[in-house]
């Protein structure tokens, strides 16, 4: 497809320079220390919104072309989106009880659900369960599975979902809310073709990667054998993240900015054009003028296509937007649209939206607040630049909507959602890695020098201000994992050659300080509190390879589980380590906390595990392949004890017959534990075993390999 029509373009700048021709590259906006969102208001809200979008788009376009002109190049570089690109490429109940929708006459005394960051704040995933039913999204289908008693595991209902289902919520009122991705034709969007040359259409042929629309499907599963679609919404953009507090679902959607398809990003080639600097300059000036006319000729409806909803009678109608619900920011971030949509499941016929002209890199939610983080955008790399993250806070106390509260900024960039936390006092804490571009001989762009800090942010008078920060932590390294525990503690892991675990005292918000440090080989990517004084972590063991012969040291790497005693914050200790697999091993739990399943009632941990190696003949073979669920006993006093594994190798092979692709993942990815039983879950199906003998399955279900195109 023509990527120039879908690229994230940049520079949502507050001060818009006159976009005349031949005046040189516009000066980039500096980091904003006082950040704010401003809503478009009054009778001219829509007119002002359109003007802001077009002024910003013109400045963006002009900035890129002026840079290309100065370099005498036909290439346009987009550092907000990563690599340079050429400008012209474009889830004992009887069967009857299950069928009638009840949970049966019995249920497990304890079971695990989605591993979430904040108590009371649910996070969407492709697996959800309520103790007696496991819901799974696989392919284009929602599978509803009776899971209790364990030996009666069976699929009792299915529902096809439009597009490519990504994640879902399950509430206490038998609602399942599915977020799927599909493609729609919008203004300023050309025809998208799949890699095989076929249109993506409304199906899943192209996978979610090519989607430009989020579909929200509310399903009534009170009768599991016959799930019923209760409500449908279609929102332009890409699924970013979501949270649920009680009946209120908050969905964050990011929509990329689309320039008019007729715009050009390089002058038409002619003999001698790129050898005549004066001629090339005039060609770029003419192109800038022509592109500005195209930008200003568009209507607001072209820039902001409306969402849609499906009524009870099956008709689809537009979701009219309110221009006063759109906000601009004075902070330079890439041009796009971030929408926070609120769906109250007590009344799913209404959906409220609040939007920011900009982008979202990561979100965090407590039961009361939602924070959207976005990075400062540098349109061109220069020595002296340092990472900055802007924070926008929204109030969630209204179950039907969000209310903008305040904005602020911290130095550096945020690794993941666990880098952020709101305490009971209302302070927001952020752990960030700060990258600064410094001079380097022979490199005009310089090199990135890193350090790390923990910031404490407080809200006052419509602003989020830094009220305290730690000293620099591990200069030259980057944060790989962090966790805030209660109001007074934080733990940060960074990595370069060793794994420093820093303990941070946050009891005084104005003076957060490092009080302990421990260095061990490797690094942790997820930290899980198992009691008041211990952390259970997952990551990678990596020895110090400084003096090792080339090509030998990396083979000692392995997936690593570890227990840290942090009861004495000044003296953190790594007390137990369990290496898992080989250098080829991998677990989704290393970078996805929802795959990390700790069962405190039984002191058990389950993680998906994947490994492979070449055969003695040098070829890949099934006999050298492993896809299973590893289960460990976890005890802060006695350590980590392997309990065995639930193998899913045969299910991987079964699904692989269909054809493994980037959107099918038949290896084990999730798990559920209930009393003495463990369920391993993948896109291929579910298998359950008793913890007493995990190698002997009690029952399994296999999902269909048929996918409707």
**Distance between the terminal alpha carbons, to the nearest Å?**
20 Å
- Helix % is under 10%
Number of helices: 5
Uncertain segments: 1-22, 77-105, 192-205, 657-663
* Averaged pLDDT: 84
- State the shape: globular
| Beta strand count | 42
Radius of gyration: 27 Å
Structural class: mainly beta
Assembly level: single chain
For the biggest sheet, the summary is: 8 strands, mixed
Strand order of the largest sheet: 19-20-21-22-26-25-24-23
- Per DSSP, what share of the residues sits in E-state strands of 2 or more residues? 35-45%
Would you write up a description of this structure?
By secondary structure, the chain is mainly β. Among the domains are: 3-35 and 42-90 and 265-293, no CATH class; 589-709, no CATH class. It has 5 helices and 42 strands. An 8-stranded mixed β-sheet has the order 19-20-21-22-26-25-24-23, with no helix packed on it. The protein has a 6-stranded mixed β-sheet with strand order 1-16-18-17-13-12, with helices on one face. Helix 1 packs antiparallel against helix 3. It is globular.
Note the main attributes of this structure.
6-stranded mixed sheet; single chain; globular; about 45% strand; 42 strands; about 700 residues; mainly beta
